[in-house]
Specification:
Blueprint (H helix, E strand, L loop, with lengths): L17 H31 L19 E5 L1 E17 L3 E4 L6 H70 L1 H164 L3 H6 L16 H161 L1 H72 L10 E3 L6 E2 L4 E5 L2 E7 L16 H12 L13 H14 L12 E4 L3 E6 L12 E7 L2 E8 L11 E5 L5 E9 L16 E8 L11 E19 L4 E2 L5 E6 L5 E12 L4 E5 L8 E5 L2
Parallel strand pairs: 7-8
Antiparallel strand pairs: 1-20, 2-11, 2-15, 3-10, 4-6, 5-9, 6-7, 9-10, 11-14, 12-13, 12-15, 13-14, 15-19, 16-17, 17-18, 17-20, 18-19
Helix pairs in contact: 2-6, 3-5, 7-8
Length: 887
């Protein structure tokens, strides 16, 4: 902490937490007292001017009204510390929660699904085998009919050859007649060629129509591409307008953020003015209290002086009255003794010897006269004393009103200053309110602009959607035209095919005419015709039989091919159904494996059969609690298990952590690495037998809990016999190590780092050393329900001697944190500082020959704990003697 304080740091709209405020208020009060003392000393310096070069009084101390001493300026390391509140507790507070794994009913459903999938797979495999066997039988039957058809075809072909030889002889005789008919046939063939030319021209025209349709299709396709390009450009322009609107929105949002930052700074500055005015008011109120106390003391002293003078006057007046009464009695006695004895008195010798009849040698009258004279002197002295007492009373009476008047004037001056301070605070607070109003208006204007930007974006996006719709309609129109062109092309192709069919029919007609010519030739040769006809009939009969045989053979071969195709399709269908069944079984097994790994340690109706007590300490391998008679065991580690431990599980950090615990507990050897081995299973069986778990060699989820070390129970949530609920917090625990937790003001984050040494002040005012082990990086703002306040960060501190902290939990402590250090600095007591009338500070230094003089200094760090301050300046040096009041 640095004192005296400068301006209050900008803290926005956040409030200071109550404990931080109390600490700061305490520091401010200490600083205020120091400032008052320094100002009083400065005022005394200005009035008494004791620093005129003069020799020191006895003892080497300046001659003033206050006891002082000399101390040397030292060079040493100085630390500036601040005090914060903390809580001494146990580290690692956490809840042990029952995992929400797979319920037994869900695990049973997954097992049933696997069983059904396995049954379906068996049925599909049987169906595939049946289909394959049936296909083989059908194919074998089809293939057996092919050889019989081939044998019949061979016999009929041999018969055809024999018939052709006989017919050839008969036909040789008819060749002459055929030659005559060939001339007619040549004429008909010429007509057929003419028909072919005409048909070719018709086909050419039809092909030209197809080419024209193709050209139209290409043109429409090019139009489609052009339309798509134009649509893309229009869409890009619309999207560009959206992007421009979004950029404008981003710019306005950045402007809003910048304005909010500037507004926050303006409000912070106005609040700083309020805080500065409040600090001045506090200082003036302290000055008023100090002045009133001094005035009260001065007035009391004046009253005491008046009362003392009056008492003295009363005493002396009483003495005077007593002495005057004595004088009166003495005078009366003198008158009585001396009346009528004047002659005798005159004759009495001045001195009488022994035996003169009087012990003193004088007469009673002379003795009385001497007594009267002595008493008169006493009375006169009493009257002078009474007169002096009356003067003192008069002076004291006058001093009391004067003191009251002076006190009243002083208080009025300070109260006038307080009024000015309050007016300054009112003005500063009004400035804060005005600044907030202006900031609100500015933010509303920018937010209005943001709304306009968002509307522009909405409009641009609507334009994009409309453009897309229009583009889609245009593309659909062009695509419809392309489709019409394709249909026209198809029609033209059909026309070509129709023309070819018509031409084929024409050719067939001409061929029919040729056949008629041949028949005419046969009729002309009557005698040959009968023979040729007979021969032809015989050949035709045999050829018909051969054709029938060929058809039968082709049919048999076709049956074989169709059977093979059908068999292939049936096998493929059965194989596809089998593959689907295998996939379903694989998926169900994967689901079952996942459910088994995440299965709950507790059943749906399990209850808590054993629970720990608050304060109980649990170590590795010991029971935390029990569910349905099965204990949940504590193991050490930082990896939270997410699956069951069982043979065949994949390697992982959780398995490596389990192996390390089993080895540490002495349940096996060679338990290293992240694999679940046979050694792991054997060690698990030993652990389960030792702690009372069912010896399965597996650990369901939730049967063990991993913590960084031994723990102590701080709370137990369920009651014994309560039903287990997955996801329920069972017990709250902490580690055994001691720790101080501090909610540090986030403004001090840069002053603290890991490894910093701190001092912990216990409730009995003993101080223990500690070390910072964690500094949070995320600030937390206290909720309004807790009183609000500045953002804070979590800081953890480990005591260097944990045993000295005791065993109490949640114990409030104070922590001194070092904010800054100055190495090899010039250091002197804060009480040696003197405030100068023109500003700044000085110290009263003692030079050569004991001469006192003021030396101006510049202040650095303050050490509130030891009451020291760092100073610097051209006139200050180590070993120099300075005057320090004995406060």
């Amino acid at each position: 902490m640095t004192a005296p304080p400068a301006t209050v740091a900008d803290q926005g709209d956040l409030e200071v937490p109550e404990d931080t405020w109390r600490s700061r208020r305490r520091r401010h009060l200490i600083g205020l007292i120091i400032v008052v003392l320094v100002i009083a000393a400065g005022a005394w310096v200005a009035i008494a001017n004791p620093f005129v070069s003069k020799p020191a009084a006895a003892g080497g101390v300046s001659d003033n009204a206050y006891p002082t001493s000399l101390q040397a300026v030292e060079r040493e390391d100085l630390s500036s510390q601040t005090e914060v509140s903390g809580t001494l507790t146990y580290a690692g507070a956490t809840d042990i929660v029952l995992p929400a794994g797979t319920a037994p009913s869900e695990l049973s459903q997954a097992q049933d699904a696997v069983a059904m999938a396995e049954q379906a797979l068996g049925a599909d495999e049987s169906a595939l085998q049946t289909a394959q066997q049936g296909n083989a039988d059908t194919l074998e039957q089809s293939q057996e009919s092919v050889p019989a058809a081939q044998a019949t075809l061979a016999a009929d072909e041999a018969s055809l050859k024999s018939t052709e030889v006989a017919n050839s002889q008969a036909l040789a005789q008819a060749q002459a007649s055929v030659q005559a008919a060939q001339a007619t046939l040549a004429s008909d063939e010429a007509g057929m060629k003419s028909t072919d030319v005409a048909n070719s021209q018709t086909v050419t025209q039809a092909k030209q129509s197809v080419q024209a349709a193709l050209a139209t299709l290409a043109s429409d396709q090019a139009s489609l591409k052009s339309t798509e390009v134009a649509n893309s450009q229009a869409l890009a322009e619309a999207e560009s307008s959206v992007q421009a609107a979004q950029a404008g929105l981003g710019s306005d949002e950045a402007s809003l953020k910048s304005t909010e930052v500037a507004n926050s700074q303006a409000v912070a500055q106005a609040k700083a003015s309020v805080q500065a005015a409040q600090a001045a008011l506090g200082s003036d109120e302290a000055s008023l209290a100090s002045t009133e106390a001094a005035n009260s003391q001065a007035l009391a002293q004046a009253d005491q002086a008046l009362q003392s003078a009056r008492a003295t006057l009363a005493t002396d007046t009483a003495t005077l009255s007593s002495d005057e009464a004595t004088l009166s009695a003495d005078e009366q006695k003198e008158t009585a003794d001396c009346r009528g004895n004047g002659a005798a008195i005159a004759k009495v010798p001045a001195a009488s010897g022994p035996g003169s009849g009087s012990p003193s040698g004088s007469t009673p009258c002379a003795t009385d006269q001497a007594t009267v004279a002595s008493q008169q002197a006493v009375v006169n002295a009493d009257k002078q004393k009474v007169s002096a007492d009356q003067s003192a009373v008069t002076s004291a009476q006058g001093n009391v009103p004067a003191t009251k008047t002076k006190n009243t004037q002083t208080i009025q001056q300070v109260q006038s200053k307080l009024t000015a301070d309050r007016q300054a605070i009112t003005s500063a607070e009004a400035n804060v309110a005005a600044t907030k109003t202006k900031n609100t208006q500015t933010v509303q204007q920018i937010q209005s602009k943001l709304t306009t930007d968002q509307q522009a974006i909405t409009s641009a996006e609507a334009n994009v959607a409309a453009t897309k719709t229009k583009n889609a309609q245009t593309v659909q129109q062009v695509q419809a035209k392309v489709t019409a062109d394709e249909q026209a092309l198809t029609s033209a192709g059909g026309n070509v095919a129709s023309t070819k069919t018509k031409d084929t029919q024409t050719v067939q007609q001409v061929e029919a005419k040729l056949t008629a010519d041949q028949q005419a030739i046969s009729a002309a040769e009557a005698d040959v015709a009968a023979t040729r006809t007979k021969n032809t009939q015989s050949v035709q009969q045999v050829q018909a039989k051969v054709t029938a045989d060929q058809q039968a053979l082709s049919t048999a071969k076709g049956d074989v091919g169709a059977t093979q195709v059908k068999d292939t399709q049936t096998a493929q269908q059965a194989a596809a159904q089998l593959a689907a069944a295998q996939l379903t079984l694989s998926q169900d097994k994967a689901t079952l494996s996942t459910d088994e790994q995440e299965a709950d340690v507790a059943g749906e109706s399990s209850t808590y059969t054993e629970l720990p007590t608050v304060g109980q300490v649990v170590s590795r391998g010991q029971e935390l609690f029990a569910i349905g008679g099965q204990p949940v065991v504590l193991l050490y580690g930082t990896v939270t298990p997410w699956r069951a431990f069982a043979p065949g599980m994949t390697p992982g950090e959780d398995v490596e952590q389990l192996n390390a615990n089993l080895a540490a507990l002495g349940y096996g050897h060679g338990l290293m690495g992240n694999n679940f081995t046979a050694a792991t299973e054997a060690a698990l069986l030993r652990l389960q037998s030792a702690v009372g778990l069912s010896p399965t060699g597996q650990l369901p989820v939730g049967s063990v809990d991993f913590q960084p070390g031994a723990i102590r129970v701080t709370a137990v949530s369920p009651n014994l016999g309560a039903t287990v609920a997955p996801g329920q917090a069972v017990i709250s625990v902490t580690l055994l190590s001691r720790q101080v937790q501090v909610a540090l003001d986030s403004s001090l984050q840069s002053d603290v780092k890991d490894g910093d040494e701190v001092s912990i002040v216990m409730p009995n005012n003993s101080t223990l050393p500690g070390t910072v082990t964690y500094v949070g990086t995320v600030a937390t703002v206290p909720s309004a329900n807790s009183g609000g306040g500045n953002p804070t960060i979590n800081v953890d501190i480990t005591p260097d001697n944990p045993a000295a902290t005791g065993t109490l939990d949640q114990l409030p402590v104070e922590v001194w944190i070092t904010e800054g250090t100055a190495n090899n600095a010039l250091v002197l007591p804060v009480d040696a500082l003197l405030a100068l009338a023109g500003g700044g500070y000085a110290v009263e230094a003692v030079g050569a020959g004991g001469v006192h003089h003021l030396v101006g200094v510049t202040l650095g760090l303050f050490d509130d704990a030891d009451g020291l301050v760092q100073v610097s300046g051209p006139g200050i040096f180590a070993g120099q003697k300075v005057v320090v009041p004995n406060v």
